[in-house]
Design brief:
The chain contains one helix and five strands, in the order E-E-E-H-E-E. It is α+β, with helices and mostly antiparallel strands and 73 residues long. Strand 4 and strand 5 form a beta hairpin. The relative contact order is 0.25. The model has no long low-confidence stretch (mean pLDDT 92).
Length: 73
């Protein structure tokens, strides 16, 4: 399973971090750009019949499974 973790608070340089499988994070200018990239990769995995999870950290520090955008087959 591939996991995508989108952090709530921007990093020191003001970018938003997306970690894939707990690797060093990728940096994006907006949270939406980070989420869009995660959804794009998740769509690719879905088409290949592979599992994924997109986790988003809320302002309260709790992590939630993202289920907002419908993935296309």
């Amino acid at each position: 399973m591939m996991t995508f973790d989108l952090f709530h608070t921007p990093s020191d340089d003001g970018t938003y971090e997306l970690s894939i499988n707990e690797s060093p994070p990728l940096h994006f200018s907006t949270p939406g750009a980070a989420l869009g990239y995660a959804v794009k990769l998740a769509n690719q995995r879905h088409r290949q019949g592979l599992d994924y999870a997109i986790n988003i950290e809320g302002g309260d520090g709790r992590w939630r499974l993202f289920e907002g955008w419908r993935l296309c087959a």
